[in-house]
Design a protein that fits this description.
Distance between the termini: 32 Å
Helix content: 40-55%
Strand order of the largest sheet: 2-1-3-4-5
CATH superfamily: Response regulator
CATH class: Alpha Beta
Strand content: 15-25%
Number of strands: 5
CATH architecture: 3-Layer(aba) Sandwich
Length: 137
Amino acid sequence: MPPAPDPASQLHGLKVMVIDDSNTIRKSAELFLAEAGCQVLLAEDGFDALAKIADHEPALVFCDILMPRLDGYQTCALIKKNPRFAATPVVMLSSKDGLFDRARGRLAGSDEYLTKPFTRDTLLQAVAQHANPARTT
């Protein structure tokens, strides 16, 4: 019986965007994702992210909730309202773990909600679960 494929090998070349105003969160997510073979796009806020999404078309977006100018809920809703990106999975990142916050994320169109601090495994598991491997180019 052949060994089960390594989930990280399925992520090789996948474009993943991380939107967070915290440099520490962006860098740790970038490190975890890059180690798994993902192409990582970073954005500091929603406005920065929306311009980069149009240019790079990531297969998955991780989006912080509490950001200046355009918060994560607004950013997620704008991504999902654009027909070109409506199918792009958005995973909310937040230090808040309340039922209200999770429900509000769902209403904005998010596909999952991860609580910070996240681990390498939870981040990669979310990518493996939601990203479409066909969107690697």
